[in-house]
Design brief:
The protein is of the alpha+beta class and 180 residues long. It contains seven helices and six strands, in the order ααβββααααβββα. The protein is globular and about 45 Å long. The termini are far apart.
Length: 180
């Protein structure tokens, strides 16, 4: 399985001239699919949301609770770039699934065990030392500026290097996803 590209030609439905596959647009699509299910009761929307969530959880690289911007790409090493904004989107999706977990279980789209594993993806597990995406996001907060850093990259040794650029959309999106 793979995520959706960020650009499609509306006349042909084919991937357009930008074939990049990022976490952010995919998790936004998954959240929209959950909302569409609530309006249409079409199970395919819940299935789409579950499939995208599994793709992020199982295919996209993780580091210290955070998810990379995307999978392997022959041009850009998305698996080594971690965006705070994309991680906020992933956390928002996990929170939305948690809030509607019975729906996913009743429609046989996610199992209770999968829901539990997604909770660990979100909050981590103190007993096992597994870090969740919320911990990764919190680590991006810069107490001096009171704004979140944009994210970071993995160096040649696989160590995380903070990108201290302050991005307004990152902080405002966090407020939208979690509230003030």
């Amino acid at each position: 399985k793979q995520g959706f590209a960020i650009y499609y030609d509306v006349t042909t439905g084919q991937i357009g001239n930008v074939a990049t596959i990022h976490v952010g647009p995919n998790v936004w699509l998954a959240m929209a699919a959950i909302d569409l299910y609530k309006v249409t009761l079409d199970r395919r929307y819940l299935q789409l949301a579950a499939d995208i969530t599994r793709w992020v959880k199982d295919v996209v690289p993780h580091k210290d609770g955070g998810v990379a911007m995307g999978p392997e790409n022959e041009v850009v090493l998305w698996r080594e770039i971690f965006s705070t904004e994309h991680n906020i989107g992933y956390a928002a999706l996990l929170k939305k699934i948690s809030a509607h977990q019975q729906l996913f279980i009743d429609q046989n789209v996610l199992t209770a065990q999968e829901i539990n594993l997604l909770e660990v993806e979100l909050t981590g597990d103190v007993l096992t030392g597994v870090k969740g995406v919320e911990e990764w996001i919190n680590a991006r907060f810069n107490p001096d500026t009171r704004i979140f850093n944009r994210g970071g990259v993995l160096d040649i040794n696989g160590e995380f290097v903070e990108d201290e650029i302050k991005a307004l959309d990152t902080t405002t999106f966090l407020i939208s996803a979690y509230g003030p």
